[in-house]
Design brief:
The chain contains twelve helices and ten strands. By secondary structure, it is α/β, with parallel strands linked by helices. It has two domains: 130 residues, 2-Layer Sandwich (Nucleotidyltransferase, domain 5); 175 residues, Nucleotidyltransferase, domain 5. A five-stranded mixed sheet has the order 3-2-1-4-5, sandwiched between helices. It is globular. It binds 5'-O-[(R)-(carboxyoxy)(hydroxy)phosphoryl]adenosine and zinc ion (ZN). Zinc ion binds next to helix 4.
Length: 339
C-alpha cells in the first residue's frame, strides 16, 4: 500500500511517500525559508504563492525518488489543518486533483497527529510503544503534553497558556538578531555559550497540572538585555542563547516527565520542529534514562515539517477506512484529536 502525503500548512512544501504504513520511500522538502527570512517570519500570502509554484514539482520529485508513478499510489493524503488557511488550501486543492486524476482515495490529515505518527516510520506502530505514551508536541504553533492511549485516542493533559515553544525561540532569536528561523539559530549559537550564565525564570515549573507558560521567560530575556545595555555591560550572545534555551528545555523536560510519572507511562515521545533541538534531545535522554522511561524521538528531519509524516498518518487513515471525499475542507484551527 503506497500513500503519498502533501504538507503545505506553513512554510515548507513537502511531499512524502510511505509504503505499508511503516516504510519511508520518499521525503522531499522544498523549503521557503529564504523567501521569508528577509521578512523575519512567515508571510502567509508569500507562503501560499510559493506552495502553488512548488507543490506539483515536489510531487514529481517524490514520485521519482520512490521510483513510482501516480498509477502506483493507493491514496493521496494531505494536511487539512491546523495551519495557514491559504497555504493549506493550495495543498488540499492539489491533493484533490491528484486523487481525482489517479482515481485513488483522498485522506485528510491532522498536522499535529501526523507529527506524532511519523514516529512509526522509525519505531513501528505507536501502539507497540506501550500505553499510555506521554507525548510532547513542540512546534512553531503548538506546545502541548498529550496522553496517547492503547486504542489510539489522544487526550491533551496540558498546553502552553501563551507562546508555543517554537514561537518563543523565533521571537527571541529575532530580538537577538540571530535571524529566521530562530530555533536552529539559537541551537547553534548556544553551543558556544554557558547555560547557567543568566538565571532566567522557569515559569509554572511547580504548579499543579501540566500546562506551560513561556511568555514570562521571553520578557525576562528582553529585560536582562535591556539591563545589560543600560549598565554598558557587553552581551555575550551565546550565553544568552544557551541560558534561554536551557530555561525552555527545563520546563518541557520537567512538565513532561511529571506527566509520565503520574500516568505511569512506559514511553515518552517527542514531536514537532522544536524536538529537533539538540539540547532538548540530550536533556530528555538523560532525564528519561534516570526515570526508567523509554524515549522515542524521530530523526531531526522528521521532527520539522515534512511530507513523510502526512503520508504515514494518511496511511493509518486509509488502513482504518477513514477516507475523505472531494468536499474535504481545510480547517486552520483544527484541534488535536480528530483526524
Ligand atoms: O513543526 P514545525 O516545523 O512547524 C510547525 O508545525 O510549526 O516547527 C517549526 C518550529 C519553528 O519555530 C522553529 O524555529 C523550530 O520549530 N525549530 C527549532 C529547531 N528546529 C526547528 N527550535 C529549536 N531548535 C531547533 N533545532
Ligand atoms: Zn509542524
Amino acid at each position: 500500500m503506497l500513500v503519498l502525503g502533501i504538507e503545505t500548512s506553513c512554510d515548507e512544501t513537502a511531499v512524502g511517500i510511505v509504503e505499508d504504513r511503516l516504510h519511508l520511500r520518499a521525503d522531499v522538502v522544498a523549503s521557503q525559508v529564504d523567501l521569508h527570512a528577509r521578512f523575519g517570519g512567515v508571510v502567509p500570502e508569500v507562503a501560499a504563492r510559493a506552495h502553488l509554484e512548488a507543490v506539483l514539482p515536489t510531487v514529481d520529485r517524490a514520485l521519482a525518488d520512490a521510483g513510482v508513478t501516480l498509477d502506483d499510489l493507493d491514496g493521496i493524503a494531505v494536511t487539512r489543518g491546523p495551519g495557514l488557511a491559504g497555504a493549506l488550501l493550495v495543498g488540499v486543492a492539489a491533493a484533490k486533483g491528484l486523487a481525482l486524476a489517479g482515481d485513488v482515495p483522498l485522506l485528510g490529515v491532522n498536522h499535529l497527529r501526523a507529527h506524532l505518527e511519523v514516529a512509526q516510520l522509525e519505531h513501528g506502530d505507536l501502539a507497540g510503544l506501550g500505553a499510555p505514551v506521554v507525548a510532547l508536541i513542540v512546534s512553531g504553533g503548538h506546545t502541548s503534553i498529550v496522553a496517547l492511549e492503547a486504542d489510539g485516542t489522544m487526550r491533551e493533559l496540558g498546553a502552553t497558556l501563551d507562546d508555543a515553544a517554537g514561537e518563543a525561540f523565533d521571537k527571541i532569536a529575532r530580538y537577538l538578531g540571530l535571524g529566521f528561523p530562530g530555533g536552529p539559530a539559537i541551537d547553534r549559537a548556544a553551543r558556544d555559550g554557558r547555560p547557567d550564565a543568566h538565571a532566567f525564570p522557569r515559569p509554572m515549573l511547580d504548579e499543579p497540572g501540566y500546562d506551560l507558560s513561556l511568555s514570562g521567560l521571553k520578557t525576562a530575556v528582553v529585560r536582562e538585555l535591556d539591563r545589560l545595555d543600560a549598565a554598558g555591560t557587553p552581551v555575550h550572545l551565546p550565553d544568552v542563547a544557551a541560558s534561554f534555551q536551557e530555561a525552555i528545555v527545563d520546563v518541557q523536560v520537567r512538565r513532561t516527565l511529571r506527566a509520565a510519572a503520574d500516568l505511569d507511562a512506559p514511553t515518552v515521545l517527542l514531536a514537532g520542529g522544536v524536538a529537533a533541538n539538540s539540547r532538548l534531545r540530550a536533556r530528555f535522554e538523560t532525564a528519561c534514562a534516570a526515570a526508567g522511561v523509554r524515549l522515542v524521538v524521530p530523526a531531526p528531519r522528521l521532527c520539522t515539517d515534512n511530507g513523510a509524516m502526512v503520508a504515514a498518518s494518511g496511511a493509518n487513515l486509509l488502513a482504518a477506512g477513514d477516507v475523505a471525499d472531494l468536499a474535504l475542507e481545510v480547517d486552520p484551527s483544527l484541534p488535536l484529536g480528530p483526524p
